[in-house]
Amino acid sequence: MEATMVGVIDLKQLYFKADFKQIQSTAGFKKWQTTVLSQNKDLGSILLDNLQNPFASGINFERKVFVFDYPTHHLINTNRGILVALNSASKFEQMVRKWSKKLVIQTGKEGFKWVELEENLALGWNKKVAMLMISAPDFKMNSVGKPLGASTYLKQFFSFPAEKSLSKNRNFQAFIRKDNDLALWYNLEAVKQQMTVALKTSNYSKNDQQVLDEIFNFSDAYIHYELNFEKGKVRATTHYDLNDHLKKFYNKTYGKTLSPELLAKLHDHKPIGFLGFSWNFSGLYDWLKRVEDVEQQFEKTAKSMNFTSQELLDALQGELMLAVTGYEKFEVKEKGSPYGDYLTEMLKKHKVGEKKLEDFRKRLDEIPAKVRVKPAPELVAVLSVKNSQVAQQLLKLLGQYTKLTPRKSYHKFQWMELTMYVAVRANHLVVSNQEKLVQNFWSKQQKPVPMVGLYKEATQCTGFGYFNFNFDEYNQSTQQHIKQQVGTKFGKLQEVLNLFDHIKARNKGFDAEIELVMSNKKENSLTTLLNGVFNDAAMIVLAE
Fold this sequence. Notes:
Oligomer: single chain
Largest sheet: 20 strands, antiparallel
Shape: globular
Distance between the termini: 44 Å
Number of helices: 23
């Protein structure tokens, strides 16, 4: 019963960071209390009593809460358990009895007590801990032919040998010693054991199985996800703690750091937000092509796209930058008659003559096209590949799926309701819904922008993203169009935006990080967020 995932929640730390006593005094929290009680008086009163006095439940909130997944006998399904420490088993039992008078408390042979809440939901406890077990439907049947229920897995947990527990795993022990508010630990070796069930259902050759075993060599490999509410910001991090084999594989398949040239061009257009990442799938292909038929299928795919295998491989190495430069209004031309295509098909089915069909189409074309205005984000994307020939081939490939209308140095095409513009410059493919952005993207003959601040930081990463929430820093046109689009709800939107300053994401090597920076730099971010949620429910009003 080796866990594939373990979540850790530090409730004590979260309680104090949230300034929960102050939150309880807000009008929004009191309104929420009333709603909870109206939906389920008994369960609501238990919840609210424990929020007022956490020690009344018998749960030891000084200790961390653990949530774990472990595999069943099927690839997709997993069981989930929630484990809490107790400082009073008798108080905990009293709370359970208040929950429902119909519950039957039973005693297991291992000395623990348990109740079956539903077939796939059971709660058990002893003097030290309590476990809520949620079991998934399982293909392993017991003697009477029914899926194993949650109570069966609960009994397995309380009888599990201590010498086989995660306490013996050094990586897990180092993980739980970290001071995090919320964290997830993924055991890739346990994930592979679950995947093996699926891999064994297919008939692989001995060579193919060897290649797959190399790729999925997850022994002693883990992923750590951590979330912390700090003063003025929320910080989420990911760390890949991999074995030497996976590090080598990761380094071969990951892209290079982002291009200073492209970042400088984005800087020229002063985007509200941008995202950039690079890739090198050719490294992955070097591994996979040893599997039978993979190389032949790759060549077949390349041919169907009018690429050679090497050209397709070159297309799988590069970087993509996407920027939001504003929020503007765009003209959308509708067809003169929305029923034209349908009527044309109907006439064809009834074998109407070609001359009459041509006359019908001509009459449809004479109907004036309706023009309406559609507000949308102003976007520009730059795809950079290994060489200019591949960039031209990608443009031709786009032409197979949509009509490209040539201009002087670029093309236009329809995407959904919007007119898009695309141009190839050397090994770059530039796409935008704003004609001037494609025309001017390479036209500025000015000195290179010095790589400072965000842009300098981005050149050191293989992936980077940024978005500015400061409405006052948007250009006047964007501000005006957002106000018109949101209408009377603009005040509530501004309340939400005012909570945040910006969000930034970066990836480098075996680490990734996302920072959500708040406008209030002096207060803990969790307090700010909860106040925002309970302050007249601004976010809920906006969503409605």
